[in-house]
Amino acid sequence: xxxxxxxxxxxxxxVFVLLFSSCDSSLKYLKTADKLAKDGNYSDAADxxxxxxxxxxxxxxxxxxxQKNAQLVLDAKFGSFAKLVVEGSSEQALRQYIYCKDYxxxxxxxxxxxxxxxxxxxxxxxxxxxxxxxxYEIGLSHMKENKFDKAEFSFAKILEFDSSYKNxxxxxxxxxxxxxxxxxxxxxxxxxxxxxxKIFKQVASFDATYKNTLQLLxxxxxxxxxxxxxxxxxxxxxxxxxxxxxxxVLVARFSKSKNPFLKIIDRNNLEKLLKEQELGMIGIIxxxxxxxxxxxxxxxxxxxxxxxxxxxxxxxxxTTDEPAYQSFSERVVGANGEAQSVIKFKKxxxxxxxxxxxxxxxxxxxLVSVQTGQIVSSEVFNAEQYDAHAYAKFxxxxxxLYPGLPAGNFMPDAPAEWKEKFFELNRxxxxxxxxxxxxxxxxxxxxxxxxxxxxx
Length: 456
Prior knowledge:
Elements: H1 7-19, H2 26-38, H3 42-55, H4 60-87, H5 90-108, H6 121-144, H7 148-161, H8 168-189, H9 193-206, H10 213-224, E1 226-232, H11 246-255, E2 262-265, H12 267-276, H13 287-297, E3 301-333, E4 339-369, E5 375-393, E6 401-402, H14 416-420, H15 432-455
Parallel strand pairs: 1-2, 1-3
Antiparallel strand pairs: 3-4, 3-6, 4-5
């Protein structure tokens, strides 16, 4: 078997052997290598000499055996290379030559200098140029016939042996891009704009300057875009809250949508479009009025939003006295009359302050198709966000404080989360506005995902 493992993998194998063997295990491989060499199995013999040398780099016999047998293997491989050239198997011959070079270099890396048969080098260069030239012509022929997959196969073979050959890299790129570009054109002609956009996006990722890819990409996006006009249809007043801001949060989320075809028309732009048609936003309160307005201003969908409920709950800072147990050491006289220290506990109180604030929101939406007048998607979403904080104070050593008494002879448990309260500092809770915006962001994402599923 030819040397196939890399030096790194071989080294790992040797480390494994050494870990489980206290003797010089290289002797076993030497014995096997000698027998294989006598039988004329030079490749496997070289493998065993190679392993023995890795185990014991000072083993002269292993090094000499590897030198001799590896040279015989290399000579045989060169012979196979020459035979493949004569048979006309150029591609296999080139790979065989490269194998010879790798074999030669791998052994050189561990200090084995083999005799390189340099008189085969001109034959390799001649074979390589002949093979590459033939593949180049085949690739060009396939491209002229629009058989780009076959052209790519030929150019890939050239790059395997010589990446600098003429302008093969450019041709190879063209063999990849041209069929994609043509697919994009076909989809535009058949008005499959979404598919065309995705294809031209792929072409642009390889080469944005390829033909007029960017112009076609923009054209396909414009044609595939789905303008959605978002409008609040419910308006309520809520105590202790200045600005619901749900609409702004929703529009911001839509503007960051990963769906390139979803185009949100916000309140300002919508008012402008409606004003141009002598319409007002106040009159758009249901699907029927949305359809009428949508046809006049050229949108494909109306998103009717109703913030149906927002609730606030809050616990003002409340401080209570909580029981705990403090450990202390006390000297006592034992039954033998000797004094000793014992741990005792006494009940104490510490102060704990708790506070929290919560916002609950409910939002409903209807997505109305302007073309059909139908409600194509609708849902009611709920979300809540809260902030809570607790901190404790104790006038004493907190390290000696426990929430309960010992169980048997074991010290009581003081959970980390319980002790952490004594290291917490008083802080302000998140405001109603912040909590509401978080709840609105959560609902906005749900609405966006819901609509995205339908539009996709």
